[in-house]
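Q: Convert this sequence to structure tokens.
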Amino acid sequence: MSLGGFRYKKLLEFNSDRLIYSIDREEKDIYAKMKANIAGGPSIIFNRYAKRNETKIRGGKVCKKIIGYDANALYLWALGNEMPCGRLTTVEAYDGIIDDIKADKVFGFLECDIRTPEHHKQYFGEMTPIFKNVLIDCTNESVIGKHMFDYNEVRKQSRANPRR
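A:
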């Protein structure tokens, strides 16, 4: 154990009666739900390879320009804004909650069930608005595509295992 690890262990041991956690054991289901709902954004997952004037998009239209954006700076922007802190409180849904959220009367995390209306499905067809953490079988060509399957086959010993 490192010196820093030992110090931290002793700090917790001798001060456990004075520590206050935002989410403690009584709310472990909330912690598990928040952790399970963390999803990374798309990482060029829709097309593995694109070439100017060759790749076709949107029903056969030839792609004239390929631009890549790195949105990592958004993390710093988010950290510079207000964040939920303090003891966890749970508020059940009530009439007018959406109006209160829009008017900045409520702040924190919100769990909701959403769906894409039929008339918007084609609009969002290229890039779905919802991301989900799922287990991907990296050994199944029909799941990961030929390019990544071939890449995994070449790397037999160190190939990717099924993962989220």
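The helical segments are 3-15, 28-36, 73-79, 97-102, 118-121, 141-154.
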